[in-house]
Design goal:
Blueprint (H helix, E strand, L loop, with lengths): L1 H56 L16 H9 L15 H17 L2 H29 L27 H10 L3 H18 L11 H7 L3 H19 L6 H16 L2
InterPro entries: TgpA-like_C (IPR025403)
Protein name: DUF4129 domain-containing protein
Pfam families: DUF4129
Length: 267
């Protein structure tokens, strides 16, 4: 009997030890599993909690504000309807004119030329050439208008007065003009004829002569429009002969003489 009891105790002890061993093994396995997958469970828990928060925020809120009912103003509606700025369906596409097409073609060719290295070099040369030519023409025109320019020829006086600073009231014009013609100095003869015409205008009080005034000043002082045009024509002949670099001939003097005769008939 005692032996049986000891056997039972031994078996029970072994069973308890085996059970304890299994519990320890399961505990270790659970700890390893929980440690490995714990962050995933935490993430799922947080995800469901956030969704619950979002769903709670999306709860429908009713607007209790009063609704204002608006209606169209028919007069304003008709004004907008007749305004051309709002008539989009009837837009008229303008057809380019011949002039616009011409310039479009010009700029297209220009872009084609400038798209190549050779074309850019050619255009640069042309621009330089035009710039130099324009500057030379400007200097030439200014020089012709300037009495002291390089193109003007210095004249020698036939009488005691100085050509560049005459006193029209002290010049014996008929005698001086005849002397200039006899010596073949037609440029001076034209100048003297022009000064004689200025004296005539001064005597008739149509201009106020002064040595420092320009021909443009006298032209502006003439009140009569028709007389202004005739005076401008006479002045052009004089300036072309006196300030130009070309040779003045007898024919040039006769042209000036005819213009002066026509001018005097209007006085």
């Amino acid at each position: 009997m005692k032996i049986l009891k000891n056997s039972i105790n031994t078996v029970m002890l072994q069973a308890v030890l085996h059970l304890a061993s299994r519990v320890v093994s399961l505990t270790c396995t659970f700890r390893s599993f929980f440690s490995k997958y714990m962050h995933r469970y935490l993430f799922l828990i947080l995800f469901f909690l956030c969704n619950q928060t979002v769903f709670a925020q999306q709860k429908l809120v009713y607007d209790s504000a009063a609704v204002e009912v608006r209606t169209f103003n028919d007069t304003s509606f008709q004004e907008y309807k007749s305004d051309a700025d709002f008539q989009y369906e009837n837009e008229v596409v303008e057809t380019p004119s011949l002039w616009d097409r011409f310039w479009a073609c010009v700029w297209k060719k220009y872009d084609e030329i400038m798209s190549t290295e050779a074309g850019r070099a050619t255009m640069k040369f042309i621009f330089w050439l035009l710039g130099i030519g324009g500057l030379a023409f400007f200097v030439y025109k200014v020089a012709r208008m300037n009495r002291l320019s390089l193109f003007a020829t210095e004249q020698q006086s036939l009488t005691a007065y100085k050509v560049e600073s005459e006193d029209i009231h002290a010049i014996p014009f008929d005698t001086a003009i005849n002397e200039a013609l006899q010596q073949g100095n037609y440029r001076l003869a034209i100048r003297l004829s022009y000064l004689q015409n200025l004296k005539l205008l001064t005597d008739k009080e149509l201009i106020d002569w002064h040595p420092n005034k320009t021909n443009t000043d006298y032209w502006l002082e003439i009140a009569d429009t028709s007389l202004q045009r005739s005076f401008k024509s006479v002045t052009s002949i004089f300036e072309y002969a006196w300030y130009g670099s070309h040779s003045v001939t007898r024919e040039d003097f006769e042209t000036m003489k005819e213009e002066l005769l026509q001018f005097k008939t209007q006085l």
